[in-house]
């Protein structure tokens, strides 16, 4: 059974209804007494939004640094947790999304890696490394055609990127193999591949 809060009934019972029962163990108050007490209270001092933003940013950076260290130590799931915490505070941080995508690829969650890398490229469309990570996620998801487009975007931004050039060749090789399989009739319905650690030389 699921319990939910009923938001439709927002009416308060009037205090006058209590007056009909004179033997209740608490004093009756006039509604106007409560209102004057509330009006006389001093408002709580609030931190300025700038202070909160600064504190949130520092906390997010701390989570990011902790995640970086955990990732370097090979503790990928723990690093992912720290980066998720940082993203809750700084959702528009492309670097965090790209790092998250790399770790998700490392642990085998290709679909989530694809989404995180795509978000990084949305936030920083002129960042070549984000496009390379997106291309790798697309390759691992079995979409070499999309991966080539991402690697081309990376190479348009950073033409000397050896990673993008190498990964683009891998994607081209997979497309070539897919065409060979289709033409031989061995696999007429498959158009998706998973990139392994080793690829055949073209």
Folded structure, characterized:
The chain has 202 residues and is an all-alpha fold. Helices cover 62% and strands 0% of the residues. The chain is built from 8 helices and no strands. Helix 4 (94-107) packs parallel to helix 6 (128-140), helix 5 (110-123) packs antiparallel against helix 6 and helix 6 (128-140) packs parallel to helix 8. It is elongated and about 60 Å long.
Low-pLDDT stretches:
1-15, 33-50
Give the terminus-to-terminus CA distance: 60 Å
Amount of beta strand = under 5%
The geometry reads as: elongated
Radius of gyration: 29 Å
H/E series: HHHHHHHH
Main β-sheet, in a few words? Answer: none
Mean pLDDT: 76
Structural class estimated from helices and strands: mainly alpha
Strand segment count: 0
Q: Helix coverage percent of residues?
A: 55-70%
Number of helical runs?
A: 8
In short:
The protein is mainly α.
Please describe the topology of this protein:
Blueprint: H1 31-40, H2 49-72, H3 76-89, H4 94-107, H5 110-123, H6 128-140, H7 144-157, H8 162-184
List the main descriptive attributes of the protein structure presented here.
single chain; 202 residues; mainly alpha; 8 helices; elongated
